[in-house]
């Protein structure tokens, strides 16, 4: 089954930065807007950021606006999430998917833990 492959997570101190990557295999990549989602322990998965197929427009959840930046490289079928000024409440498993999301296109995600 074709799935995206997320990477770049890890343990970081509050105020630190991480850059997540998502290799979106199995798609005609430029046919899709893409997005990042996250799921914290005990909570439902939530939207984080979205980018149009051509990269010209983006949108963010209020909780990450001004700290996170979504981008994409259509030549590499890859979408990125630059995360700065990380907070403990950003701790979650981060997933990429199309936008709107495809129900059968969830990967394993990448764990981000923000802790001192």
Please tell me about this protein's structure.
With 116 residues, this protein is mainly beta. The protein has no helices and ten strands. Strands 2-10-9-4-5-6 form a six-stranded mixed sheet, with no helix packed on it. The protein is globular.
For the biggest sheet, the summary is: 6 strands, mixed
Order of helices and strands: EEEEEEEEEE
- Strand order of the main beta sheet, please? 2-10-9-4-5-6
Uncertain runs: none
What is the rounded Rg?
13 Å
Strand runs, count:
10
> How far is the N terminus from the C terminus?
38 Å
Taken as a percent bin, the fraction of beta residues is 35-45%
Q: Kindly state the mean pLDDT as a whole number?
A: 96
* C-alpha geometry: globular
Helical content class: under 10%
Query: Count the helices. How many?
Result: 0
Q: Helices and strands: which structural class?
A: mainly beta
């Amino acid at each position: 089954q074709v799935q995206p492959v997320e990477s770049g997570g890890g343990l970081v101190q509050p105020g630190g930065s991480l850059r997540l990557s998502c290799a979106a295999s199995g798609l005609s990549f430029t046919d899709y807007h893409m997005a990042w989602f996250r799921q914290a322990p005990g909570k439902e998965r939530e939207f984080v950021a979205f980018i149009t197929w051509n990269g010209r427009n983006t949108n963010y959840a209020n909780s990450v606006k001004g700290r996170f930046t979504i981008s994409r490289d259509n030549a590499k079928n890859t979408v990125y999430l630059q995360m700065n000024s990380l907070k403990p409440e950003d701790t979650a498993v981060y997933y990429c998917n199309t936008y709107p999301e495809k129900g059968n296109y969830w990967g394993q995600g990448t764990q981000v833990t923000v802790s001192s």
